[in-house]
Amino acid sequence: MEQVKSRITTTHAEGADCQVLILACPSIAAATQPGQFVHVRVSESADPLLRRPISVMLADRQAGHIRLLVRKVGRGTEALARLPAGATVDLLGPLGNGFPFPSAETSGDILLVAGGVGVAPLVFLADTLQTHRARFRVCGLLGGASDEHLPVWTELAGRCEEFHVSTEDGSAGEQGLVTELLGEHLAQDGTAVVYTCGPRPMMAAVAQMCAEARVPCWASLEQWMGCGVGACLGCVVPAAGGDDFLRVCKDGPVFAAEQLAWEALGQ
Amino acid sequence: MSATVPDLSVEIAGLTLRNPVMPASGTFGWGTEYADLLELSSLGAVVVKATTLLPRPGNAPPRIVETPAGMLNAIGLQNPGVDVVVREKLPPLADCGAPVIVNIAGETVDDYVAVAKRLGASPVVSALEINASCPNTERGGMQFGLEPGPLAELVSAVRAVTSLPLITKLSPNVTDIVPLARAAVEAGTDALSLINTLLGMAIDTDRRRPKLGNVTGGLSGPAIRPVAVRMVWQVAAAGLGVPLIGMGGIMSANDALEFILAGATAVAIGTATFVTPDTCRQVIEGLAAYCVRNGVRSIREIVGAAHRP
């Protein structure tokens, strides 16, 4: 983990409410694993004050840059999305645990189930899995409200052997929820493991379906965050089976689905 | 001839600190979380999270929310309990090169007394900070910090069982902080920390619900700095004869200087560390630069200087 000043080399709007930023930061690009995040200071001023945790969508070690997908959901992310190419941002990272890589014995399909902007860390995971294509098939399932809410879908599609899209309004792919696509896939045998990132209700449903199908499931969570390094205990989520809490920034952001109390999380 | 290096050392509660800058309890974990980004031995002291007698899971999330130039938190004193703290959390700090101050909290006076006794047996602990001001649990300290009587009772009870230097952290959620400060001093505290967070609240207008799981939380960050400076000023003006540790929204050396000039012998950095992990280091360097620039040989010369005619 380190704190660096990073230059935005490129920035462009993506879909209805997202922005893709490419940031020059060789040391972070070299160190980041799929599922990890950077904690981004969105302005030099004291308002907005806190950093914003953003998943790394891709890390190009040779070019020395990382790519972030930012959904404009509030003042901080809007400020970040407005920054022009050439601007400098202060990054802290890489942070968090990242996705555990499938074990050497894994065979069958690896399913990546994404909702909206949750596609970002799964693009990075798919990219890394590509170097192991001989061992397993990577299948991507992406859902969104409409075709305007499927940011960077080609980035995921291009890194999967099989790829399906669903939208709630039917403007792209199957009409319905991504969990319906998952249901169809789980009904056939051969799913080795599921990785998911998206809205909490979606991930709660994915976790439930995987538990019923006895398929291991890893979920990447988002939460309002203070320090990002495990010190402030501000970003916790409820752990399964008790009163305990887990820190999204340090114990996560990736959790085995059975670690979490989804009934409390999924609301 | 090179410029004279200014003397930043200060004395708090019998402890000599190499400089007047420390993290604020609750914002620095157990000290090791930031070790990659900040040399602990460069700090005036390391102040770790509030410790209670029994483990506390903390409050239901969401626990933090950003507000204008600040944030609300309602962590709820999550900690593994004093036994685990002594056994697992403090030993890694044994050789950190700075005095270790442990913040203590509880539901009853007996809780504080038990925690103080247990921590007194740890060779790692240099001082205790009585948390009489956590606003985020039903009975987590602030119930002692709002009236002089209960506060004096708490401080004297802890004083009676420890020979460690004792700091009392006061709540700003009172009409007049001076009677509280006086009560703590008369009960035997060696120093005062001020201020803890201001009780606040934010509401999600879409969901029509409080944003925090705990409904209310403690406001920190630059938004509260003028309140904190005013309270340090008032307590310093009361001339109670103990050193003050000022905190509340310090983001820079200049902010820290406001507190020092108002009468704080030392300062603590809290929320700023989340934004800029090495804020403590920047403040230490900035204080040294200020001293050099202004011909100040020792930072102690300017403590409370804004009160002087």
Written overview of the protein:
The complex is a heterodimer of chains A (267) and B (309). Chain A is α/β, with parallel strands linked by helices and 267 residues long. Chain A has two domains: 2-95, Beta Barrel (Elongation Factor Tu (Ef-tu), domain 3), CATH 2.40.30.10; 109-220, Rossmann fold, CATH 3.40.50.80. Chain A has seven helices and 15 strands. Chain A has helices at residues 26-31, 75-82, 119-129, 153-157, 178-187, 200-213, 262-265; strands at 2-14, 18-24, 37-41, 52-60, 65-71, 88-95, 109-115, 137-144, 162-167, 174-175, 191-197, 217-220, 236-238, 245-247, 254-256. In chain A, strands 10-9-8-7-11-12-15 form a seven-stranded mixed sheet, sandwiched between helices. Chain A has a six-stranded antiparallel barrel with strand order 1-2-5-4-3-6. The longest helix of chain A has 14 residues, at 200-213. With 309 residues, chain B is of the alpha/beta class. Chain B has a single domain, classed as Aldolase class I (TIM Barrel), CATH 3.20.20.70. Helix content of chain B is 29%, strand content 21%. Chain B has helices spanning 82-89, 109-120, 142-145, 148-161, 178-186, 225-237, 253-262, 271-275, 279-293, and strands at 10-12, 15-17, 21-23, 46-51, 64-67, 70-73, 100-104, 125-131, 166-169, 191-194, 198-201, 203-204, 209-210, 216-220, 244-247, 266-269. In chain B, α2 packs parallel to α4 (148-161). Chain B is globular and about 55 Å long. The model of chain B has no long low-confidence stretch (mean pLDDT 94). Classes of the chains: A alpha/beta (267), B alpha/beta (309). The A-B interface holds A 1-3, 41, 46-51, 76, 90, 92, 223-238, 243-245, 250, 264 and B 26-29, 33-34, 36-37, 57-58, 60-66, 68-71, 73, 75, 78, 221-222, 251, 271, 273-278.
